[in-house]
Write a structure and sequence with these properties.
By secondary structure, the protein is an alpha+beta fold. It has helices spanning 20-24, 47-67, 124-137, 187-195; strands at residues 33-35, 38-40, 70-74, 78-82, 85-87, 91-95, 106-107, 114-118, 142-147, 152-159, 162-170, 174-175, 185-186. It has 4 helices and 13 strands. A 6-stranded mixed beta sheet has the order 3-6-8-9-10-11, with helices on both faces. A 3-stranded mixed beta sheet has the order 5-4-7. Strands 1-2 form a two-stranded antiparallel ribbon.
Length: 197
């Protein structure tokens, strides 16, 4: 067969049939996320993963409450990226004046000021590539990536539509994010749950 110099016609798959409306209609214990129109199962969180999420929301809420600085939401509150994409971060924070008022089932309009993802070995790529791009696309100002396996925390800050690493911490140091003046998260407390029976 002679080479014509033309690329063969390749069918580009259409996004799946599911939409934001299908995503928010899922039962609250259904952990699937909406990825390009497909409802995709995410890994079932481990006890350590859930404990770290609770601790992060605790530290954020304890910081915000006396300052009237905003509200923290844990895993399960859905964020609309597009009509065919929706996610559930492990934690999210809304500064005062940016709360998702009247959006009980999920965030349709607006964006959190901070999202936190706690990576597992199977979700690292998803958290670092897809979700990173999606959060940037809706203008989430800050993204924290917590990696319990590596015992690291990265604080990414949106700069001209792209995330830049503002902090990269490991071990048992105290995390003091500049954008949350006075907040201190002792990473030793997060990692301690990894060693609990």
């Amino acid at each position: 067969m002679a080479h014509t110099g033309r690329m063969p016609d390749v069918a580009i798959p259409e996004p799946g049939p599911y939409t934001w409306e299908d995503f928010i209609a899922l039962d609250e214990d259904d952990l699937r996320e909406l990825i390009d129109g497909e409802l995709v199962e995410v890994e079932v969180p481990t006890k350590a993963h859930e404990r770290i999420g609770v601790l992060i929301t605790y530290f954020l809420e304890a910081w915000a409450d006396p300052r009237d600085a905003g509200m923290t939401l844990g895993a399960g509150y859905k964020i609309r990226v597009t009509d065919k994409r929706g996610v559930m971060p492990d934690a999210q924070f809304y500064r005062t004046g940016n709360e998702p008022r009247g959006q009980e089932q999920g965030l349709v309009d607006g964006r959190p000021d901070l999202v936190v993802e706690i990576s597992s070995p199977s979700s690292v790529r998803y958290d670092r590539v897809k979700k990173l791009a999606w959060y940037a696309s809706i203008g989430v100002a800050e993204y924290w990536l917590v990696d319990p396996a590596q015992r690291t925390v990265e604080r990414l800050v949106l700069d001209h539509g792209r995330y830049a690493i503002a902090d990269a911490l490991e071990g048992e140091v105290v995390f003091r994010p500049a954008s949350f003046e006075g907040l201190e998260i002792p990473l030793a407390k997060l990692w301690k749950v990894l060693d609990d029976p």
